[in-house]
Amino acid sequence: MAQQMGVAAKQYAFLVEGRWLSEGERFDVLAPQDGRVVGSAFRATPAHVEAAIQASVGAFETTRKLPAWERQRVLRVVAQGIADRREEFARVLALEAAKPIKSARLEVDRTVFTFTIAAEESTRIYGEWLPLDLQAATAGRWAIVRRFPVGPISSITPFNFPLNLVAHKWAPAIAAGCTIVHKPAPQTPLSSLLLAELVAQACWPAGGLNVLPLSNADAAPLVADERMKLLTFTGSSAVGWELKKQAGKKRVALELGGNAGVVIHHDADLEYAAERCVFGGFSYSGQSCISVQRIFVHRSIFEKFLAAFLPRVEKLKLGDPLDEATDLGPLISQEAARRAAEWVEEAVAAGARVLCGGKRQGAMFDPTVLTGTRPDLRVNCQEIFAPVVTVEPYDDFAQAVRQVNHTNYGLQAGLFTRDAKLISNAYEDLEVGGVIVGDVPTFRIDHMPYGGVRDSGLGREGLRYAIEEMTERKLLVMNLR
Fold it and tell me: What is the mean pLDDT of each run of 10 residues along the chain (481 residues)?
């Protein structure tokens, strides 16, 4: 049963055409760790969706003409507003997403960085000058190419980074001069509604940002309506590719799932590799699409790696996300924890050994390490999204690369080696969007190009790269003869 917090939980309205609305069905957002009411919001209706789309189309006539300095000003004001309210944002994240408070603060800081870099990039949307007199018949002609905003954008985000992943949609859109209609994750809508307050206070034009908690059915126009010119979605692969089918002619950017692999060669610094694999595999209870899920270690150092890795895993502290000492909180739901337990049990039944963890209590799941698994088991070939890691030995580096590639996903991969030739081979042969050398695939800084291949997505995020997705090249040819 849901529990009330000690003080009245805040009620969050949603934003349409510059108006804060408290209409539709009211619902409570519950903390996964104990069922307390974090806050309440309102579920928007199809009529609100239509109003938001109309507002976005209308506001685009204003935002597309805003000068770079004005777009930059808005982004800087938002960045400063987040920094000023850091603890408030962190607490909301910790409660609605069950994110340990120290991790929540890091997400808030990353969001400040995301808006700050977007502010810088808003003044660097460059074009080019082209000579056209390459043939006698075209003498005297030249051209310029500029990038123009594509138009209104639909954005949909998941529960796991409900502030920074939202920023990766809104910040480049504002930088480019696009308008946005946003659907937050149903489990974690409060962070985005709080962030929307700051965007509105920064005087982004009314209708330029619309944020609506929606059911999946009511959100369908955000995907299919031709007035929306780009759909940018972060979430599961199955949902993302289905949305692409429904999106019609509009552009689609998909940042989807993964089951990230890391290779640890015999020349690696084992203590450092073990430390980073603990971070990569168990931060936010493994609920990240670039969480370390599969570790491949050269057989000659396999036991030494386990001796460095397992004690670090066993020291991780499970507990209340608001406790400063907590490393892992609960998963987003009891169903997510039951799913992880089922996959682990399936692996054990197939001959795998549990080196540590493997136990569930409610939504809590112990950090778990398995070995003796097969590539076709779900703990390896699918995205578990839980604090579960498999560790297997390899004999030949090319074999390790094949093992990493033995999946339908391809987001990022990690590599620990000092051998330049092996690094070059991995960069050539790993079927991923990014190869991270000397670190885990969980590494991300928010301005780098980020995205995957195969089932892991389409297009790239990272401010400059997202702006490219959100703008269209237009050619101007001049013949002054």
Answer: 52 97 96 94 98 98 98 98 98 97 98 98 97 95 98 98 98 98 97 98 98 96 98 97 96 98 98 98 98 98 98 97 97 97 98 97 97 98 98 97 98 98 98 98 98 97 97 96 74
Other C-beta atoms lying within 10 Å of the C-beta of residue 412: 26
Residue appearing with tokens 């692409």: 244
Nearest to 115, CA basis, from 62, 157, 73, 70: 73
Q: Write out the catalytic residue numbers.
A: 255, 289
Q: State the first-to-last Cα distance of the chain, in angstroms, to the nearest integer.
A: 79
User: Which fold does the domain 261-445 belong to in CATH?
Assistant: Aldehyde Dehydrogenase; Chain A, domain 2 (3.40.309)
Give all strands of the β-sheet with 10-11 in edge-to-edge order: 10-11, 37-43, 25-30
How many alpha carbons fall within 13 Å on the CB side of residue 319?
11
State the pTM of this model. 0.96
Where are the chain's structural domains? 10-256+457-475, 261-445
CATH number of 10-256+457-475: 3.40.605.10
d(CA 456, CA 450) in angstroms, rounded, equals 11
What whole-number distance in Å separates Cα of residue 163 and Cα of residue 34? 22
C-alpha span between 445 and 245 (Å, rounded): 31
